[in-house]
Amino acid sequence: MKETTKLNIRQIMDILEDGNLGYEKLASQFEQYDVSTVFKRLSQQRKMFIEELKYECLVQGETLMVTGTMAGFFHRTLMGLKEAFASEESLIEMAVDGEKAAIKAYQENMNENIPRFLKEKLEQQLDLIKGAIPQLQNFKQEVGES
């Protein structure tokens, strides 16, 4: 696997780890069962995406470690600080912002250096990430109305 491809995949995997940890943290912040359950599901989905990419890299003879990003660390730290003061609505908005960051990372890192089989996997994952935003926005609206 080319070095540039490894870097691209590594950046995507790191932002997926940010999402995994962020959703795990958010799930514990909501008493509403449906919202908490969706956050847990999204956390698990991000873990699955990471494992899929690790497998694809392993098939190509590469082992990549996942660490998350500094921006993700600070985002989760900020979420932790806001927990006591933030509304559920603003926490959901932070999740939407995280999804937008993930979409940007995918779009910036999917280029001609990515092998076709891997690009197809990334496109499938990207579609699922994009699909989470309307669901989160619905939760934000529901929480705001209650």
How would you describe this protein?
The protein is mainly α. The chain is 80% helix and 0% strand. The protein has one domain: Ferritin, core subunit, four-helix bundle (Ferritin, Up-down Bundle). The protein has five helices and no strands. Helix 4 packs antiparallel against helix 5. 27% of the residues are buried.
Total count of strands: 0
Head-to-tail CA distance between termini: 51 Å
Helix content bin:
over 70%
CATH-derived topology: Ferritin
Overall mean pLDDT: 83
Which second-level CATH architecture applies?
Up-down Bundle
The profile of the biggest β sheet is: none
Give the class-level CATH name.
Mainly Alpha
The helix tally amounts to 5
Show unreliable segments. Answer: none
Topology as a string of helices (H) and strands (E): HHHHH
| Integer count of domains | 1
- By CATH, the superfamily comes out as Ferritin, core subunit, four-helix bundle
Structural class by SSE content: mainly alpha
Using the CA coordinates, give the radius of gyration.
16 Å
Task: Note the beta-strand portion.
Answer: under 5%
Q: Label the overall shape.
A: elongated
